[in-house]
Amino acid sequence: MNLEILEPKIQEFINYNIGVSVSKLALQKNPFPSVEWISILNQIAAKTKAKDKLPTWFSTQNIIYPSRISVEQTSSEITALYKSSIVSGENLIDLTGGFGIDDFYFSKKIKNVVHCEINDELSSIVNHNFKQLNNGNIQCYSGDSRDTLLKINTKWDWIYIDPSRRNDTKGKVFMLKDCLPNVPENLDFYFEKTNSILIKTAPILDISAGISELNHIKTIHIIAVDNEVKELLWELHKSYSASINIKTVNIAKEKTETFEFNLDDNLQQSIFSLPQKYLYEPNSAIMKSGAFDQVGQFYELNKLQKHSHLYTSDNLIPFPGRIFEIEKCIPYSKNEMKQHLENQKANITTRNFSDSVDSIRKKWKIKEGGNLYCFFTTDENNSKIVLICTKIK
User: Fold this and answer.
1) Residue 204: band (very low, low, confident or very high) from pLDDT cuts 50, 70, 90
2) What confidence category does residue 77 fall into, taking pLDDT thresholds of 50, 70 and 90?
3) What is the DSSP pairing of strand 278-282 with strand 302-303?
4) 43 to each of 126, 130, 148, 333, 338, how far by Cα in Å?
5) Which of 238, 267, 329, 350 has the fewest CB atoms within 10 Å distance of its CB?
6) DSSP-H helix ranges across 134-213
């Protein structure tokens, strides 16, 4: 950690160039020869990324940033705040501390927090930053977190883990055993040190795969921000063996949408119908959960088709997702498309439809944007239809 980066003139230069293309700045001569140019450029890129994601860090003086990629991969303050609502007690140890965003928010709920980070440089940066943030109840340990667990011989109220995928993992599909640390392999050891474990994983992890690898899962939290799923949180309790609760959360500026259910709920068969007056599209957290029958039954909505995952009703009701009023329902045919949508401007969504959005736009010369929302889907009679809608919410 090079503290020269904190010299007032260098910090002034960094702040002045927030948002400026680093690739363009790289062509300039370094105005501060005592510090590597690449280090200054990295601070600019990382701090630019932190502006919206980490506003507390961004607005605090003398913060040192790791690589831009580390900032991209860290939790946002929004999701860290949510995580802190799950935990309670006297102490918590984070086995994969990273940039320390989660621990900063854990420390507002937990009296003593331990931040473990295998990278010595990153551990030093985080320790420095916590001091700038006036945080006094987080201890930073560098090195292997398993060694730290053995060294601090105590019973923890919570263990928090954010395992990272190994570099040699191929493809998008992965298992927890493919990550570091290998949580399934170490789970029994972790439960010797605590009764409660919180695990963060990337949203790309298949929920059924995670369930197959872990024991004592009480709740799976699916967290979306502005309708984009950001992370999955696996809440494990040593003595728990009942049904798994799935909690979906979509955090937006206006409000937070939640919907939850138990995996063992007895479900009735969905009721299908042709499109009625209103159309409902579940938010991304619900879509990730696979609660396609549960959400329709809970809100007493009819489903358009088994695989379409769109819902309809004649009466307008509150719903965790987007709501539209259906203006027209047309068959997907050449004559109907030419009459209603060709050369028009519209927002397009496909659900259980053979053609992609790009191919539909190209074929019918539909420009992006405007106030029309068109859903290309399949109805209960397995007919291809287009729902031309206006957005209510």
Assistant:
1) very high
2) very high
3) unpaired
4) 14, 17, 30, 54, 53
5) 267
6) 145-151, 183-193, 207-213
